[in-house]
């Protein structure tokens, strides 16, 4: 069951699309086999500290309760195909284990985040349309 508001996830999708559409944003489009507790994303996003879109994205994530942040991460993993919908509880559990205060940066550092979140929502029968 999805406990994070789908409208909030849709706003995150919109902001991630805007952020990644900027010419100066260069984040490698390779599979990243690290967990949410690593700090690669912090180093990668340091040069974008004054970006208003990134600031709003971070603010929305930071305003979510930790369990809701973990569900957004689990949606990323679900939409990316790391888990099936039948494994949702396990995805959330794994996201809970990996949770830290850098969730927003971990999420936005994924170039295909908007697509993955949209697919995760779709699998839960929600849509941003």
Structure report:
By secondary structure, this protein is mainly α. The protein has helices at 6-21, 40-45, 52-63, 66-80, 88-98, 103-108, 113-123. It has a domain at 51-129. Helix 1 (6-21) packs antiparallel against helix 7 and helix 4 packs across helix 7 (113-123). The radius of gyration is 13 Å and the shape is globular. Pfam families: DUF3775 (PF12616).
Structural class assignment: mainly alpha
How much helix, percentage-wise, in residues? 55-70%
How many DSSP E strands? 0
Which spans have pLDDT < 50 for at least 5 consecutive residues? 30-34
Shape field: globular
Report the total helices. 7
Terminal CA distance: 20 Å
Largest sheet: none
Order of helices and strands: HHHHHHH
- Estimate the strand proportion: under 5%
Cα radius of gyration in angstroms: 13 Å
Q: Provide mean pLDDT, rounded.
A: 85
What topology does this entry show?
Layout: H1 6-21, H2 40-45, H3 52-63, H4 66-80, H5 88-98, H6 103-108, H7 113-123
Give me some keywords for this one.
mainly alpha; 129 residues; globular
Short description:
By secondary structure, this protein is mainly α. 60% of the residues lie in helices and 0% in strands.
């Amino acid at each position: 069951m999805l406990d994070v508001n789908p409208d909030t996830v849709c706003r995150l999708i919109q902001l991630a699309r805007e952020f990644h559409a900027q010419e100066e944003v260069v984040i490698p489009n390779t599979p990243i086999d690290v967990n949410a507790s690593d700090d690669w994303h912090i180093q990668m996003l340091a040069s974008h500290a004054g970006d208003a879109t990134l600031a709003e994205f971070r603010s929305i994530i930071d305003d979510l309760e930790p369990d809701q942040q973990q569900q957004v991460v689990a949606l990323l993993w679900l939409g990316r195909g790391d888990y099936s919908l039948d494994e949702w509880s396990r995805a959330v559990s794994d996201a809970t284990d990996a949770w830290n205060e850098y969730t927003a940066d971990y999420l936005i550092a994924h170039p295909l985040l908007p697509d993955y979140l949209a697919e995760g929502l779709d699998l839960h029968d929600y849509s941003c349309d």
